[in-house]
Design brief:
This protein is mainly beta. It contains six helices and 29 strands.
Length: 518
């Protein structure tokens, strides 16, 4: 694997260093043992003695013109007699023999604590049983990102493995990992291009015109694993905003599952919290006259979602509201809830601007959303369970829909019947009724049963008058936007039955101006 090691070193300095060390233009043979080379046992990162180092060189060399080069070289060797191991060791050795060996004979610098450029080669090993993923990195003194090479090897069989074979042995789904990897790297590239557009480096509208992938197969990419069950891929690409090569290192859970094909339809909607859990204590927000609404909308950057979290509190006679909007990043991996239940294999992660608060949103198997909100203070974690606001029939939600909160007065002041009605988030309501022969205030709560009609949704209530006598029937008809459009009420006072049939009626939300009846 031949490459130019000093492609980012200024030409004048590079020429001087080459001349000063008397380096050859072609690589010479493998250095003799008399040079500063030794086989050393691996450190704690490198797991076992099955891998040693075939080249170890830490030296600052002096060029004739005064320039100094620091060499920090550690290259591994697989301790196996198999043909595949020998071939991998030879490929690793070429990195040294092509780019480092010439400088090993240069004299040591008088002052080893300072140098002009640095050539570094190092390695890391990730183990799964007798299988290892070996990653070698090299950096040649420039400001660009290092190069990485990777090999997977099975010491039990003595055979080289592809990355795909290694992942399959670990029980992972390579296709799901590649889907998550593509989404992550594409997002990074588009963020770079967005910054370049803002700086005038790229024309507007070119956000999606970058590379769609920097690999044709996962087998081309170096990989490493951690004990938490994650895999990290190393990908080199050109950053449009920084005009330099960068190395992306997305970390993805090994148990990542592919996104459902209709995930956008499932998720991009408005959701209302039906439960909040703080330090193990569960409550229903509506019981506290509160509402938590989550609004998820598609963002322009691949793999991102605009997340708005809205908290509203009913404080007579007004509704107090606070909202925060963040950009959520779509990640692979399940989330474990406060009750130990695991979500589907993906999540949205949103950080606050200062990075001290995090929302983690995931979908459960029952199609509800859960959001874990964590802050910097101890005990600040809160879990919310959300249901889609437009799916009242499926939710079985017993509280009053958010859009119905407040007090409504009849638009027709001359009409007999309901004069005004108030709905609170906890499902309670009260109304002033005036008919010929009877007037008073009815109070009660939502029954939690709903019916869908061709004109909208009917919510049913149980109401009583001041004397505790119940209405025979009362329901309110909602428009599709949640506003009241009509009502049906029967009330018996003694022997007199008052009846108002369902019919369209205009209602005005007068909450800010009307003192509510408790």
């Amino acid at each position: 694997m031949k490459h130019k090691a000093f492609r980012w070193i200024p030409a004048v300095l590079l020429a001087a260093l080459l001349a000063g060390c008397g380096a050859k233009t072609a690589a010479s043979a493998r250095p003799a043992g008399s040079r500063e080379l030794k086989s050393t046992p691996p450190d704690s990162m490198h797991a076992t003695g099955m891998i040693t180092e075939q080249y170890t060189l830490e030296k600052v060399v002096q060029a004739e013109n005064g320039g100094k080069v620091r060499l920090n070289i550690h290259l591994p060797r697989l301790e196996s007699d198999s043909a595949d191991a020998a071939r991998i060791n030879a490929e690793i050795a070429q990195l040294y023999e092509y780019d480092v060996q010439e400088y090993a004979d240069c004299p040591a610098a008088a002052d080893p604590d300072s140098w002009d450029i640095c050539i570094e080669m190092n390695w890391n090993a990730s183990w799964y049983g007798d299988c290892v993923s070996l990653v070698v990195s090299s950096c040649y003194g420039g400001t660009d990102a290092p190069f990485h090479w990777g090999w997977c090897f099975d010491f039990d069989s003595g055979k080289q493995l592809t990355v795909t074979q290694m992942l399959q042995r670990m029980g992972a789904d390579p296709a799901a990992l590649e889907e998550a990897l593509y989404r992550d790297v594409k997002r990074r590239d588009e963020l770079d291009r967005q910054a370049a557009i803002e700086r005038g480096m790229l024309p507007p509208g070119s956000l999606k015109e970058g590379n769609t992938a920097w690999w044709t197969s996962l087998d081309e990419l170096p990989v490493s694993f951690d004990e938490a069950g994650n895999v990290t891929f190393l990908i080199r690409r050109f950053s449009a905003s920084g005009e330099e090569y960068v190395t992306d290192a997305p970390t993805i859970p090994l148990d990542a599952q592919p996104l459902p094909p209709d995930w956008e339809w499932q998720v991009l909607a408005e959701w209302m919290a039906v439960t909040a859990v703080t330090q193990g204590e569960s409550c229903v927000p509506a019981d506290r006259n509160e509402s938590f609404t989550l609004r998820l909308e598609k963002a322009e950057i691949t793999g991102t979602v605009t997340v708005s979290f809205i908290r509203e509190t009913y404080v007579s006679p007004q509704i107090q509201s606070a909202a925060e909007t963040r950009t959520g990043e779509l990640n692979a991996g399940a989330v474990t809830g406060w009750d130990g239940e695991k979500s589907q294999g993906w999540n949205l992660t949103c950080l606050s601007e200062d990075g001290r608060s995090r929302w983690t949103i995931s979908m459960m198997e029952d199609r509800s959303l859960r959001m874990q909100s964590t802050g910097p203070k101890k005990g600040s974690e809160v879990w919310y369970v959300f249901q889609r606001t437009e799916a009242w029939d499926d939710i079985g939600y017993t509280a009053i829909p958010r859009r119905l909160w407040g007090t409504y007065r009849a638009g027709d002041e001359a009409a007999k019947g309901i004069r005004w009605m108030t709905f609170l988030p906890d499902g309670s309501c009260c109304m002033s009724v005036e008919w010929d022969g009877w007037n008073g205030t009815l109070t009660g709560t939502a029954e939690g049963t709903q019916g869908r009609t061709e004109d909208g949704t009917e919510l049913y209530f149980t109401l009583t008058d001041q004397n505790g006598r119940p209405c025979e029937f009362w329901a309110i008809l909602l428009n599709d936007d949640g506003s009241p459009s009509g009502c049906s009420l029967k009330y018996r006072a003694g022997e007199v039955l008052f009846d108002r049939d369902t019919r369209p009626i205009y209602w005005k939300n007068d909450s800010p101006d009307l003192t509510l009846v408790p």
